[in-house]
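LOG
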Amino acid sequence: MADLLDKGKKAAPAGQASVRPADPSRIPEPGGNVPGGPAVSAISGRPASTANPGQAEAIAHRDGPMLVLAGPGSGKTYTITQRVRCLIEEGGAEPDSILVITFTRAAADEMKGRFLRLTEGKFYPVNFGTFHAIYYHILKSAYHYQSGNILSEHEKRELLKTVLFRQKGLPAMDEDQLEILLNQISRCKNDGGPETGRAGHPGKAADEAGEMPQAGALSAEQFLSVYSAYNREAKERRKLDFDDMVLQCRDLFLQYPDILAAWQKKFRYILVDEFQDINAMQYEVLRMLALPENNLFVVGDDDQSIYAFRGARPELM
């Protein structure tokens, strides 16, 4: 993350405290809940009504990037919600310019609930959501997607079966092998596609796909053919899966800088919880959104990543 978090001041050492898309000028309001060496702080201890020194430093941080190292039970939710309150009530930030990103819907709901209790019922339309919810909201604004455009798990499996049926010379696969292949396609997307990334490297992707038991192994060439055909078929059906939400958002921003600029202007402050679970594509789009001001505040613990099987990259911290 050095390229993004390279302008912040150094904080206290950890030991001191533990189709042409829609017009971007008409971005709809999500209504507060959408479906460098960096400044570094370390927080420790249980959440409390009074912040400890590490929490206070993180909460009071204003502009520019900041990385907060926080282990289990250190009061991460407390720190994030207090920082949001501080940005609004003491820093003068517009509530709807603040974006808080989590990795699960439950975590987003909990974060929003804690913030509402903290602000004693005041209506601050802060945006809380998961990576996929945020990126889908952006795509929906641009391409007018509906819920029917999202592939269900059953539809993904049936689409893959259709692709495999049309391919020649592939080994037969049982349901377990299909699931592994779908996971490898997902890993490839999360690392940016077959042209980039770890699982995205053709040889690596095929090697990992080749771990499938019995006759399900694919060569690098076969995997890339299936990967391309799967994505092509989904696009022709105007369908997308959760991984596509991130990839398509990246492509949208690259193709239409004016749309990117509109969302950058909207989300001036971005906070990310459990940052150690981020993958390469989520990080790339996050980097785009944070520019040019880089008011990016991330909280994580690189010893606690639980999504490595999805391509999470704790080394980005």
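LOG (cont.) second protein
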Amino acid sequence: MNNEQSHSATPLRLIDRDLYLNGSEQPIRLRPLETRLLTTLLRYSNQTVSRATLMREVWQTDFLDDTRTLDVHIHWLRQKIEEDPNRPRRLVTIKGVGYCLVLDGQRRKGNR
């Protein structure tokens, strides 16, 4: 199965579990949950996605008492997609709400 997701305004391509950045021909292999997380963030690109939405769509749960697993997976994903994971520009935290995958340099208003 070849499931490709890309965005024309950014050099980011996801094919199955292989992530291609900046036009590179060398893929970065993602873990299954990283792939589901990135796929969800791509679906809502440039929009704030709430922690509840990510937990529901990626982990199929409404349990929000402990979302540390989400933070850990965001950290791992940043290690793979950010030039400087300590100063994220693509996968940004929206304090008190969730995360936003910024693909075209601008974040849209609105939450998911």
